Amino acid sequence: MKKFPEYYQEYQRFKDKNLIYQIESNDKKSNNEWYQLLNKTDEGLKNKWSNPELNDSDWNTMHVPGYWADNGLANINGAVWFRKEFKIQKVKENSAKLILGRIVDADSVFVNVHFVGTTSYLYPPRKYSFNSNILKEGKNEIAIRIINNSGKGGFVMDKQYQLVNGNDSLNLSCIWKYKLGTKMLPLPSQTFIRWKPVGLYNAMIAPLKNYAIKGVLWYQGESSTKKPVEYSALMETLITNWRAEWKQGNFPFIYVQLANYMEPKSEPVESNWAELRQQQKKTLYVPNTAMAVTIDLGEWNDIHPLNKYDVGKRLALQARKMVYGEKKLVLSGPLFKSMKREQNKLVLSFSDIGTGLIEKKNAILKGFSIAGGDGKFVWANAEIINDKIMVWSDSIPIPLKVRYARADNPSEANLYNKQNLPASPFESKI
């Protein structure tokens, strides 16, 4: 920590147990008071809005998925109730399941007044299994109480919303009724003491130092996008420190580059997520490290994408070659190596091309941008020629800089090798 004065000073500050006790006590008090007031004033709790016989003829309507701030209720925090009536011709003789995408922030779900599940924060996928005896032929009712403590509340877009019973499914992406249960001020933010410098290390890593290990798989970085430029230095220090503490030499350290996330942009723009990916690529200079590229495995609307299988598969490729000696294995997609300028074009060379470079999804390479002396990037043409890539734009007569997949969500980037592994995002200049 001494190499990073800002974090070192914070580490010293949080050695004070009285400070920790005071912060945690205040946080607990404000959190309890907020939820007590919420539950006390929620008309939906007081008047049992989960009751399927409730007269909801005066409730407003909106399409789910969506956010109530975009549907006439303004950016309100508190409790909002949703109801949906549906009909079933025949109930199957097995369990049923509600799939409700993701909900911001917390939810409690009722089917025909029976409580079937709850989730306390916004990230996990909502999948609630329950006994199909709760369902009945004819009219049924789903009621959902959503608690939103800050930001926009509601149902996350582009997720799956349906009821599954046996082989039958009912699409729930449709019009629902909703009504405000109670309005609240935003919940005061909490201080996560354990996330302060050395907190997680002292509690969860240091106790393992007397155990032998084969290597490290590291999957993290989203929370570091606020200060991306320092990431490579932090990671190099962490890797060096762990290797010193375990006293097992330069054991393998294999990590995941950030996946694609947030809405795609139509024009080249600056991106902290892209800068952090560049810092992660830079960390490959540390000996005996490897990186799994995942810019094609994320979801624009989910910081925790569901496809962990292919993340694990790409990490395993790295380990099979680096650790277990499968020498002929292609373990990575293309990694930028060097470039030169030929008149108004840049010629890019790559390592890890496997048996050759390809453009996936369509016949045109996308995701490249270039800039001249003014540093302003524009989308560029790109073409594969003899396992090198020629990049140019008629509007940039003397290109000096190139970027690939330099965005929060480079959804159109399609450079791969023939082993179906994606190229890492990169930035370079003459």
Question: Would you mind describing this structure in some detail?
Answer:
The chain has seven helices and 26 strands. It has helices spanning 5-13, 17-41, 43-46, 199-205, 231-246, 272-282, 309-322; strands spanning 60-63, 66-67, 77-88, 96-100, 103-104, 106-111, 114-119, 127-130, 138-148, 154-155, 161-165, 168-171, 175-184, 216-218, 253-256, 289-292, 335-342, 345-351, 357-359, 368-371, 377-379, 381-385, 388-392, 401-404, 415-417, 426-429. The two termini are 35 Å apart. Helix content is 20%, strand content 30%. It is an alpha+beta fold. It is globular, with a radius of gyration of 26 Å. The strands form seven sheets. A six-stranded antiparallel β-sheet has the order 1-13-3-9-6-7. The chain has a four-stranded antiparallel β-sheet with strand order 8-4-11-12, with no helix packed on it. Strands 17-18-23-22 form a four-stranded antiparallel β-sheet, with no helix packed on it.
Oligomer: single chain
Give the tally of β-strands.
26
Biggest sheet layout: 6 strands, antiparallel
* SS element count, helices: 7
**Global Rg:** 26 Å
Kindly, what is the distance between the CA atoms of the first and last residues, rounded to a whole number of angstroms? 35 Å
- Whole-number mean pLDDT: 96
- Overall geometric form: globular
Strand content: 25-35%
Show unreliable segments: none
How much helicity do the residues have? 10-25%
Structural class: alpha+beta
Query: What topology, given as strand order, has the largest sheet?
Result: 1-13-3-9-6-7
